[in-house]
Amino acid sequence: MQSPYLDIVDDVKRRIASGKLKPGDRLPPVRQVARQWGVALATATKAMNTLQQQGVVVARPRVGTVVASPSSGPLPEPLPETALSRERVVRVAIEIADAEGLGALTMRGIAAKLGVAPMSAYKYVGGKDDLVLLMADAAYAELGYPTPPPDGWRARLELVGRTLWTLHRRHPWLAQVTPLSRPVVLPHLAVHAEQALAAIESLGFDPVTRLDLHVLFYSFVQGLAVNAERETQAQAVTGLTEDEWMDAQEPGLRTLMDTGAYPAFAAMVKGVGDGYDLDLDALFELGLKLQLDGLAAMIEDGGHGR
């Protein structure tokens, strides 16, 4: 009798061979695989990692695990344990979180993806909490700023906003790591904060107002980006895509509109019809403009803070 994780591996391969799964098709998240097969999360994780190592599936950021194309070929053999480093552990952890969300991140899963013993990763990081902070700092380090910076406070803040948005879209889990009420000290996040604060400082506001403006600016980016991570988590829990979930809500929405108690909501839904797609990138651009237009109006009004 073979190990349960190999049963999962064989089943996925059979589905691909029969044509039930085709290149590009998305596989269920690891948590859903564990529930479907009645196995531990670590067993499901080992099965998916084995499929990745064999080149059967690949992990796609913000998509999940999909069937690989025939030309993809097997992945390189895992590095020997002597080749491990903190940077490699962090990078593999980022890959897992990008594809499946922070909820799927475990030290055992990281070790399985690296092809090493479960306790090996602990030689380089103190535990998951420490690891997540290292991941966040590494992610924030991926993009920097030109020297000298753009001319004018608005151009400078636009650059900071779009840089942070790019990083949060690349790594949706980032929005979960740095709550406003309990900020964490991350050197590379401080680089982005310094750029924003330097732009705001040039406007002559008092220190409290400058901090208020910076917190609002960052929370705008973070607050919008958190929806991308929540969608990853929702797909992992429900197994439904965003479109499938919306289709399932339609009867309830119709019932709500038919009550006549929400005429503005009903008129909006009727006017939009099937033509509205929730585009986070478009909403970010609109929100960024409104933020900066509001700051420009505040400057013109004399720069009054709270």
From TrEMBL:
PROSITE patterns according to UniProt: HTH_GNTR, HTH_TETR_2
GO molecular function, one term: DNA binding
Gene3D superfamilies: Homeodomain-like, Tetracycline Repressor, domain 2, Winged helix-like DNA-binding domain superfamily/Winged helix DNA-binding domain
GO biological process, one term: negative regulation of DNA-templated transcription
Keyword Transcription regulation: yes
InterPro entries: Bact_HTH_transcr_reg, Homeodomain-like_sf, HTH_TetR, Repressor_TetR_C, Tet_transcr_reg_TetR-rel_C_sf, Tscrpt_reg_HTH_GntR, WH-like_DNA-bd_sf, WH_DNA-bd_sf
Keywords, comma-separated and alphabetical: DNA-binding, Transcription, Transcription regulation
HTH gntR-type domain sequence ranges: 2-70
Name of this chain's protein: DNA-binding transcriptional regulator YhcF (GntR family)
Domain of life: Bacteria
Lineage summary: Bacteria, Bacillati, Actinomycetota, Actinomycetes, Streptosporangiales
DNA-binding feature ranges: 106-125
